[in-house]
Each structure stands twice: as structure tokens, then as C-alpha cells.
Design brief:
CATH class of the largest domain: Mainly Alpha
Number of domains: 2
Number of strands: 3
CATH superfamily of the largest domain: Winged helix-like DNA-binding domain superfamily/Winged helix DNA-binding domain
Structural class: alpha+beta
Strand order of the largest sheet: 1-3-2
CATH topology of the largest domain: Arc Repressor Mutant, subunit A
């Protein structure tokens, strides 16, 4: 019997160990934080999202959304910037947010596989593989495992 059924998918997120509990609590302890990540997915995972759009489209108060944006920014899930927008011959400044690399991983935990293109899936897998290889390389150095040993294991498994 296969331990992972067809309906289950392994999800891996690399977290800074000193902030693990804070990050997980900030995201999954709040429906509004999850809504911010889902909104970001709907806009395109690499695109900016604007505070005014979140306030207008999500069913949460301005205060709740701003508190979540501040918390997610402080934890490194989002980056924040001020953008100058020209509207009706007037310059306006708006707050824009964008998912960081770790923020993208959390957003992707919420994504439905059917909503991702084959290209996006391939890119996600390659990024995950690269991150895992870097992690394994660093750990192997700490454990005094030679690169040749890792290369041998990799070659054996790829055959």
C-alpha cells in the first residue's frame, strides 16, 4: 500500500526556526490573514496587492486588515512599499504589498493544484528542489558527510 494516496500531496515549507510558532500562528490563527494570502493568489502570486483593494474586497474591517498586513510584513511574509499613482491629474500614494519567497510558499499551501499551470508547477518544484538541496548541503557539512557521498546517493536514486 502506498503511504501517500493520490488525494494527498506533501507540502513543505522552510521556516526560520526562531520564528516558526509566530509565523504559523499569524497565518493560520487568523481567517483574515489566510484571506490576504488567498487574495494575493487570486491577483497572481508575484504581483503587488494594494491595501485599498483588500479593504474593498475582503469581508473584514479596515483595522483588521491593516493589523494583519503589519504582522505579516513584520514576520517577513509580505514586503511593503509606497507607490505613487497618477489619477485624474493628481498624485496619490498607496500602500502596496508583495509576497516574499516564504510568503509565496504559504500562499501556495492554500492553492488548488488545478488552479496552477504546468509551467507554475514545474517552477515550484524546481524552486523547492533547489531549496532542499541547499538545506541538505548545509546539513551534510555539519554532519561531515562528503559531497561525493551525496552525489552517489543522488545518482543512485535518479537511475
Amino acid at each position: 500500500m502506498n503511504p501517500v494516496s493520490e488525494n494527498l500531496h506533501p507540502y513543505v515549507v522552510f521556516l526560520p526556526p526562531e520564528q516558526k510558532s509566530k509565523i504559523l500562528g499569524a497565518i493560520f490563527g487568523s481567517k483574515s490573514a489566510v484571506a490576504v494570502l488567498r487574495f494575493s493568489l487570486s491577483q497572481g502570486i508575484s504581483n503587488r496587492i494594494y491595501q485599498k483593494d483588500l479593504v474593498r474586497k475582503l469581508a473584514y474591517s479596515n483595522k483588521t486588515i491593516i493589523a494583519n498586513l503589519k504582522a505579516l510584513t513584520k514576520l517577513g511574509i509580505l514586503t511593503e512599499e509606497m507607490k505613487k499613482i497618477e489619477k485624474e491629474n493628481r498624485a496619490m500614494w498607496v500602500k502596496a504589498y508583495q509576497l516574499t519567497d516564504i510568503g509565496k510558499w504559504f500562499a501556495l499551501l492554500l492553492a488548488e493544484e488545478r488552479d496552477l499551470s504546468e509551467k507554475e508547477k514545474a517552477e515550484i518544484f524546481q524552486n523547492l528542489f533547489r531549496a532542499y538541496i541547499k538545506w541538505a548541503k548545509n546539513l551534510s557539512e555539519e554532519l561531515s558527510i562528503s559531497k561525493k557521498t551525496l552525489e552517489r546517493v543522488f545518482t543512485e536514486e535518479m537511475q
